[in-house]
């Protein structure tokens, strides 16, 4: 597995396909494995980059540090301009990169995310408990509860083996508890509600209509705040819309980015 070491992190990465560069930024608790339904489709049109960044210390970690990992990886790969797709926390990272290093971001796809800040709609207490796995008697049970809250009953009923695989991967290949907590805190502090109006990259916002972890109102607010942004809401889908409705998400991404030069 290719690895690049930066002053801040050791970054493991993969590049699939060829063409304009497209970097996929993970959400909280997910590794690059989480893009298993995107890479096969998107790599037909793009040099699709997935990665995991590992740090010796997460003390004081912020979303700006996570965006710095993306910039460092692109520099290592010699990529001066790329499309960026981020999901959930990865959507925060993608926004940060588009604002702090706009020359790097040709196109922006923001999935299951918002712009942060006090004006955002918050998840319910029940959804928060699900996400955190409250009351679980084992790490596996906690992971299962969190992932059940992120997916629809229909998806789980139609794809039981795939869902079990996701639970297992979440347990086997996810950040350490310290790293998870640091990233969660960084996400909780994130607030670009007053800044996203400065994003100049063409932007597509994708969201599930039944997302319990990031209420759909946040996607609408984000799309309204980013100049010229388009909004794609998939009815009946939950937080992991890019998994349970992968074909529609991938078609939307390909149609938006158009395979044009990045």
UniProtKB/TrEMBL annotation:
Keywords associated with the record: Hydrolase
- Mention one GO molecular function: 3-oxoadipate enol-lactonase activity
Gene3D superfamilies attached here? alpha/beta hydrolase
The AB hydrolase-1 domain sits at 20-245
SUPFAM superfamilies linked to this entry: alpha/beta-Hydrolases
Give EC number(s), comma-separated: 3.1.1.24
Under the heading InterPro entries, the entry gives: AB_hydrolase, AB_hydrolase_1, AB_hydrolase_fold
The name under which this protein is listed is Beta-ketoadipate enol-lactone hydrolase
Organism, as annotated: uncultured Rubrobacteraceae bacterium
């Amino acid at each position: 597995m290719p690895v690049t070491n930066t002053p801040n992190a050791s970054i493991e990465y993969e590049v699939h396909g060829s063409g304009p560069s497209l970097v996929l930024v993970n959400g909280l608790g997910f590794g690059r494995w989480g893009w298993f339904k995107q890479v096969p489709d998107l790599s037909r049109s793009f040099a699709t980059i997935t990665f995991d960044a590992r740090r010796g210390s997460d003390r004081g970690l912020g979303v700006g540090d996570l965006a710095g990992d993306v910039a460092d990886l692109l520099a290592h790969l010699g990529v001066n301009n790329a499309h960026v797709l981020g999901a959930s926390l990865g959507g925060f990272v993608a926004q940060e990169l588009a604002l702090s290093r706009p020359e790097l971001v040709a196109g922006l796809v923001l999935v299951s995310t918002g712009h942060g800040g006090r004006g955002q709609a918050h998840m319910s207490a029940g959804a928060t408990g699900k996400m955190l796995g409250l009351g679980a008697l084992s790490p596996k049970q906690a992971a299962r509860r969190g992932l059940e809250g992120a997916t629809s009953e229909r998806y789980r009923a139609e794809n039981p083996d795939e869902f079990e695989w996701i639970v297992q991967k979440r347990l086997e290949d996810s950040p350490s508890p310290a790293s998870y907590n640091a990233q969660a805190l960084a996400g909780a502090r994130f607030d670009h509600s007053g800044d996203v109006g400065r994003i100049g990259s063409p932007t597509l916002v994708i969201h599930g209509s039944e997302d319990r972890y990031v209420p759909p109102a946040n996607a609408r607010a984000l799309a309204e705040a980013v100049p010229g942004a388009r909004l794609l809401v998939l009815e009946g889908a939950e937080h992991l819309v890019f998994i349970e409705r992968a074909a529609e998400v991938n078609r939307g991404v390909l149609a938006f980015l158009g395979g044009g030069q990045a």
